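Lab intake sheet, docking and co-folding queue.

SAMPLE TYPE: protein with bound small molecule
LIGAND NAME: thiamine diphosphate
LIGAND FORMAT: SMILES
REQUESTED OUTPUT: full 3D complex as structure tokens
PRIORITY: normal
SUBMITTED BY: R.K., bench team

The fields below were copied directly from the construct record.
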Amino acid sequence: MASDLHLLVGGAQGSGLETTMQVLAPAYASLGYGVMANREYFSNIVGRHSYIHMRISSSGEPKALQYPVDFIGAMDAESVFTHYDDIREGGFLLYDMGTARTRLVQIASMEPDLRNRLLENFKKLGIQPPTVESVVSYLEKDVGVNVIGLSFTALFEVLIKKHGLTRAQAQRFRSSILIGAIAGLSGLDREALELGLEKRFGSRPKVLEINKDFVASVADEIEREYGTPLKLAEPKAPYSEYVVASGNDAVAMGKIVGGVRYQAYYPITPASDESVLLEAYEGLKIDGESLGSIAILQTEDEIAAISSVIGAALTGARSSTATSGPGFSLMVEALGWAGKNDVPIVVTYYQRGGPSTGLPTRGSQSDLLFTLFASHGEFPRMILSSGDHLEAFYDAIEAYNLAEKYQMPVIHLLDKFLANMVASMPIPDLEGVRIERGETIFEAPRGPFKRFPRDKPIAPRPVLGSGAITWYTGDEHDEYGHIDEDPVNRNIMYERRWKKMEIADKEIPEEFRAKYYGPEDAKVLLVGWGSVKIPALEAIEVLGEEGVRAAYLHVRMLSPLPKRLISDVLSRFDPENVIAVEANYLGQASKLITMETGFLFKKFVLKWTGRPIYLNELVEGVLDIVKNGRSRVVLSYGK
Amino acid sequence: MASRGVASYRTEVWSDWCPGCGDFGILAAMQKAFAELNLDPATTVVVSGIGCSSKTPHFLNVNGVHTLHGRGIAFATGIKLANPNLTVVINGGDGDLLGIGVAHFVALGRRNLDVTVIIHNNQVYGLTKGQASPTLRKGEQVKSLPVPNLQDAVNPIALAIASGYTFVARAYSLWVDHLKEILKAAISHKGSAVIDVLQPCITYNDIYTAEFYKDRLYKLEDDPEWDPVVRDPGEEEEKKATALKKAEEWGTRIPVGVFYVNPLKDTYEDRLAKRNPAYSRENPPAFQSIYSEGSSLVGPEEFRKLFDRFIVKVSRR
Ligand SMILES: Cc1ncc(C[n+]2csc(CCOP(=O)(O)OP(=O)(O)O)c2C)c(N)n1
Ligand SMILES: [Mg+2]
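RESULT FIELD (auto-filled):
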């Protein structure tokens, strides 16, 4: 029995694909399996090809996604063509026999680039003309894929006859067929399956009831016919409970625990799901009692979002916004104002593929240097970047603490990969969570207040309404916050701002800001940040099995950068064996490390297609460097 | 609370406006209005953008937030929503509020947040040396312009009414007491209030001078028939139409005074409290306690209850 199950389910955007993830993730988690699921989709509401890529792991941990997969469930013809080479020998392909005659050239929703590439591939393979039928038969005969053809229409008939649905209603159960098939082939415990369905459809009893019946019948039939070839080994189950959530969800939960009281946003992928979830929690209700209230405002633009967040922060509310590249581009002027005025704000920044509109629904790590230098003038800001869901949760809380303790803007830098990936994570350790508000003061002596004393970089911060009278300005200011262009004052205030960064750099433990994973005597070091952590941690294990002793240095805080720890780790490696792994073109974190430590990176594994870095290609990329002496490997796996 | 004199609302900061600038009149009217309303300086916040006019907060002995060009309303929105107990007044130039910041100007009207906006309308970008502002009319060429202006003017009164402001008025910076009275009404009004204050720019604007305004301005309230207040929801459309018509008047006679008031519309704070009863003036988000003894109010038990929908119990089968 396999320890891991890799699945891919494809179909048209808007056809209920996400349901497969929303049902299967909690179902497997309820048995103690670790789950990781990514959703790839176009910037489109209905019709374009979309897919869910999942891994279920008996290790009990959410593990890195990789190819090829064990199972592909194709809701439509486009999915068969698109993913024909993503499946392993001996894997299972499920498709709708009703699409058998569909020709590749008929798929209007497919981008011409992919169609032309596929036409060429199929020509080389002698699949002529490429139809679902001919591709499926190639997979069966030449690749050794087990093909399961189902008549979706016949299955819909069951729904129409047995449950009295209309044809249009029955069509919406497409994803249920795939869920049933996966449950059948993997011998998924039926109670767990029901739990998954309840999580997804609990609020709609009728749909739930039909689904329970329908999915189970598909599962039983598949199991009867094919057995349970994809049955997983017993899970190690280190946890008795999981939180099954996306990165957006994890951050929203962290913000709530962290005490968010104001959030403003302008809708943008892949950030707004977080704000929308916070909206649902605006009353912070538990058993009819309220813990407080979150004021959430959908603004007219991102400039208003960050500006109002600054305003709210001045009143003492823990305040944040969530955005992506285009939105942050609009926010930078106000970011400088917050930096100038010691205002604790948090900007949760989900990177997507740029520049400009770029790849609006795909991921990237290409905005690190932008966030570090955004806005004119020089002022300190902190940048935290989370490597996985649990880190994202804790960092969402820590971002507020750091902002208030050091009185400066904090950018929590995430990416679309984490934002949209659903993972099973353990229940966070809430006993260990501290809320630290630094010098924030809610009751101050009445009258004019020296908000910016020259001798105190981090000074008491009486909030608006505390009794004190305070002034703030974007101009250079004196101790009271009034305009002051005097050169001597300028020097003092300028240094005063940067002094906060020095203090922060001294106080924040470097062990929090960066972490070394792997054997102490490793020969090869991968250096990365953000969601690279997920494939990197597993890559070093796989590399170890391949005879390459590798380690991973994860940088969680990019400003202030933990330069002593990083320098120390880097000094233990031959520079030829230090590899920057990043989802961008420049190797942005490596450039930053060079800037701060003088260490010159020579080796890179990079990816900027907007698709996640997959475990298989990362391992191959590193091997290509280590074994073949390549210096720069550009990854591109994924559709 | 003991009443405070006008002087107590002044700071020692020197006002560096051009001698004779209309901003002095607006500042004086604000100080008087604050004194007569006996506003608590600690709970009063004056927010501004960037421009000559936006320096105003530094001269007022209440909380002052001098922000970015065009963004005063946006900053003020966060301040007011996080702590609705604060009295919030926004000062900005015509360029600031109706040019670069016009998106926020419109959005505020839609929300009817309980704040007051003062437009320092001098038809020019004063601080950048006299370029045309959005209220300068087409074909006009003030002395700082090398060529006549080709863009039509925006009508601040009409835009405010169309955007949903529930208190819309115009005043004149040299009629300090008249402006003061309108200011008091605007600040006391529950909802978004805007005052378009005509203000000579003696340095750059040689068209809209004190001389120009002298014979043209008249007060709406001098007409005993003039009643801008909506007293019944059914009157809204008609009162708006009358106000919009009045707003078009700009020539030999220019009206000042209150154009439109609708005290019946709920404020954004009210709307929020209605949707979410936990949001209240008694317990504003800004002052809520979020932790005790260093730990979040959301402890392990609260976490479980709040996020139950995300939690999956593992049961070995
Ligand atoms: C983003 C930005 N663009 C341009 C400027 C330059 N600027 C400063 S004041 C101003 C115009 C001021 O005009 P107005 O708002 O009418 O105020 P006034 O000076 O007339 O009172 C401009 C364009 C700026 N500060 N910020
Ligand atoms: Mg102006």
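REVIEWER NOTE: The longest strand of chain A covers residues 87-96.
SIGN-OFF: pending second check by T.M.
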